[in-house]
Design brief:
five-stranded mixed β-sheet, 5 strands, alpha/beta, Nucleotidyltransferase, domain 5, 139 residues, 5 helices
């Protein structure tokens, strides 16, 4: 079986998460500088089978799209061009960064580790992936 890969796109850094091949577990994968994300994904997909991409779609509390959405849409167009055989699915990512920060505060003891900005991005991507998997595969 192939993996499902989630992307928490950011203007500076992009968090990634992936399922195991059996799609039982969603795990944080990496945080990549955003300008390098397409190259990173090309290398990853060359070494691991990936069925589809789940891209976080940020919304405000009232449901309106966040300011970064036009940049995400541009990124998704490039992603679709580079990987025309892989579906790209948007997943509402409301509150995932806030929840990721809460998880880090509760589970990471070292203050220096809690300050690592990339950690929030990876965990947010894992939360996006878990949310998608719960709604479409596990639930």
């Amino acid at each position: 079986m192939s993996r499902i890969l989630a992307i928490d796109y950011g203007t500076k850094r992009t968090g990634l998460a992936v399922t195991d091949p059996l799609r039982i577990i969603a795990s944080a994968l990496d945080t990549v500088p955003t300008p390098e994300i397409l190259g990173y994904l090309a290398k990853y997909c060359a070494s691991e089978p990936v069925e589809c991409f789940i891209v976080g779609f940020p919304r405000h509390e009232d449901g309106n799209p966040a300011q970064v959405v036009p940049e995400i849409e541009k990124f998704v167009e490039k992603l679709k061009k580079q990987f025309p055989d892989k579906p790209v699915i948007y997943e509402d990512e409301r509150y995932t960064s806030r929840e990721a920060s809460r998880i880090i505060l509760q589970s990471v003891n070292k203050k220096s580790k809690r300050r690592e900005k990339g950690l929030v991005d990876r965990i947010a991507a894992a939360l996006i992936l878990e949310q998608y998997m719960q709604a479409h595969h596990w639930g």
